[in-house]
Amino acid sequence: MEIVLVRHGKPVNSINSRVDSAGFAKWVRRYNHSVVSDFSRPQPGVMQAFAHHYRVASDLPRAVHSCVIATGQAPQSVSKLYREMEIPRYKLPFSMRAWSWVYLNRLLWVAGKPGPFESYQEARERAREATESLVSLAETHEQVVLFAHGFFNLHLRRYLQQAGWQLQEKSGKFWGVTRLCR
């Protein structure tokens, strides 16, 4: 059995502009609704590598679009379960680059700062559920490829390894492939 986790391609709306906290909230909304940039493509040969895999994707547009770009086909299953872990949005009194906001807010979020969004603990529980779902799909289809997100894939990989899956390949970059076998 094989489970492959693919991080989506670089989104159109991932520009690292300087924003305040209100601007960052708008940036996150645009990022979450973004498709993959025309200039972001996977390595050659990806379509053939996943030709016989059962295709799954997060319901965010960048993940679904990545599946179509990489395989030439729509995902066979799309689920909110595989969405990226929250990009929290705390109201802080300064401006900085969008990706700096992502890292600072995620750090506060992982440390337990509450907000009007999924908590880190809830996101980890969702990743555990997603792991069980992927294992079940692999038991049915033998080979599964999931088009999802960097931080979420990191947690999925850890939970799969804890469940006895062997890491064959790992990358968290845009279009990065993490391959696990049992």
SSE inventory with pairings:
Elements: E1 2-7, E2 18-19, H1 21-32, H2 46-49, E3 54-58, H3 61-71, E4 77-79, E5 96-97, H4 98-110, H5 120-141, E6 143-148, H6 150-162, E7 166-169, E8 177-181
Parallel strand pairs: 1-6, 3-4, 3-6
Antiparallel strand pairs: 1-8, 2-5, 7-8
Structure characterization notes:
With 182 residues, the protein is α/β, with parallel strands linked by helices. The chain has a single domain (2-181), classed as Phosphoglycerate mutase-like (Rossmann fold). It has 6 helices and 8 strands, in the order ββααβαββααβαββ. It has helices at residues 21-32, 46-49, 61-71, 98-110, 120-141, 150-162; strands at residues 2-7, 18-19, 54-58, 77-79, 96-97, 143-148, 166-169, 177-181. It has a 6-stranded mixed sheet with strand order 4-3-6-1-8-7. A two-stranded antiparallel ribbon has the order 2-5. Helix 5 (120-141) crosses helix 6. The chain starts with a strand and ends with a strand. The mean pLDDT is 96. This is Phosphoglycerate mutase.
